[in-house]
Specification:
The chain is of the alpha/beta class and about 400 residues long. Helices cover about 40% and strands about 20% of the residues. The longest helix has 25 residues. It is globular, with a radius of gyration of 23 Å.
Length: about 400
């Protein structure tokens, strides 16, 4: 693609993005948002309608006269898929480009069964979900996948994951090549969760999504853009060292990591040492719900330790929203009370003045819906649109 074609595609991507975000959904509104002439906007809109990316409909008439035609993303010939892979679960959805879920499925897996077994299951589920949605395979134009480990985003390669035995060096998109005319985008699961949560919080612009489960991780969305860092490692807060815990060994090889002292796995280990029946994070949730005093104390202590790390992040990043997700978020106030208390005590007043600290509104579907958004937004990028609409 030459430079002129790249500029045209970038302009088309900007226009489609305005429609997708609801920022401009009529031709005149797009003229105002872009500063381009009516003739230029008409040419671009007509092209995107012709190529099946946009539709234009007439809203119902009102007492004030006939409203302008409204633009929206087309649901006719394009669908995307989003997959959230966890240590023990898989959640997959087929959705329209606008994010409306057509079919979804959740099932138990063992991520340590290895990429061949797990991804074969994902491929089989995708085929069944496309059939359930009444869509042929050629309608699937992008797939987003979140995995519970570090990912080199550009290539979709899993890099030295601590809990995914057999996945190191796995280039996930290779398992789907030749089956669908669709790029496969792979990211860390917490990044996908952050995207999903951000999409459903219209008032948030700068969001931290903190997953507290077997491990601890963070996804960062700043002014609508997911921040991955130079090599995809941004947000790996589980391995920030907490002073005073240098004697606690973390599975990463370092000592004193917040994940080693405040994650669901760490709480379960502390409870086992006290004689409680707690093999994993889910058992911690069960014990707290049963009123187990030691479990509640351990969860509140974990909240304080997580709050210490987040207080530094608040002063550094200045988010307007912190969302606590993961299985321990089911404990709501048992965890949040101490997280909030430490953040408000330790972070700068200016940074906390309008800060909301809440649990996830999407729960266990956050990663799946975030992966859907990851796929959809790729298709609306200049690179993604080039694969859909061809030469312009």
């Amino acid at each position: 693609m030459n430079s002129a074609a790249k500029r045209r595609m970038a302009s088309l991507s900007e226009l489609a993005g305005l429609v997708a975000d609801g920022a401009a959904t009529t031709r005149s509104a797009i003229v105002g948002a872009t500063g381009l002439s009516r003739a230029a906007i008409a040419q671009r809109v007509d092209l995107l309608i012709e190529r099946g990316l946009l539709v234009e409909t007439e809203p119902a008439a009102t007492d004030r006269g006939r409203p302008p035609l409204a633009l929206d993303l087309s649901d006719a010939r394009i669908v995307v898929a989003g997959c959230d892979l966890g240590a023990t679960h898989s959640r997959i959805a087929v959705a329209t480009l606008s994010g409306r879920v057509l079919a979804e499925r959740a099932r138990a897996i063992d991520i340590n069964a290895g990429p061949e077994a797990v991804l074969a299951g994902v491929r089989a589920d995708l085929e069944e979900l496309l059939a359930a949605a009444g869509r042929p395979a050629d309608h699937l134009r992008a797939v987003g996948i979140g995995v519970p480990g570090p990912v080199e985003f550009a290539s979709g390669t899993v890099v030295r994951p601590p809990i995914m035995a057999g996945w190191d060096g796995c280039r996930v998109p290779a398992f789907f090549e030749g089956r669908y005319a669709a790029p496969v985008l792979v990211d860390n699961d917490v990044n996908a969760m952050a995207l999903g949560e951000y999409t459903h919080r219209q008032a948030s612009r700068h969001l931290l999504y903190v997953k507290v489960g077997t491990g601890i991780g963070c996804g960062i969305v700043s002014d609508g853009v997911l921040h991955r860092g130079a090599s995809g490692a941004a947000g790996d807060i589980g391995h920030i060292q907490l002073p005073g815990h240098e004697d606690v060994l973390c599975h990463c090889g370092n000592t004193g990591c917040v994940e080693a002292v405040a994650s669901g796995a760490a709480i379960a280990a502390a409870l086992r040492a006290q004689g409680a029946d707690a093999a994993r994070a889910a058992d911690v949730v069960r014990l707290v719900s049963e009123g187990h005093a030691a479990a509640r104390r351990q969860v509140r202590l974990a909240g304080q330790r997580i709050g210490e790390v987040l207080a530094s992040l608040v002063s550094f990043h200045n988010p307007d929203t912190i969302v606590i997700g993961g299985i321990l978020a089911q404990l709501h106030e048992d965890l949040l009370a101490d997280v909030r208390a430490v953040i408000y005590r330790r972070a700068l007043p200016l940074a906390t003045r309008s800060l909301a600290i809440e649990t996830s509104v999407l729960g266990e579907r956050a990663g799946m819906l975030g992966a859907v958004r990851l796929a959809a937004r790729h298709l609306l990028s200049a690179e993604g649109m080039a694969g859909i609409i061809g030469d312009v």
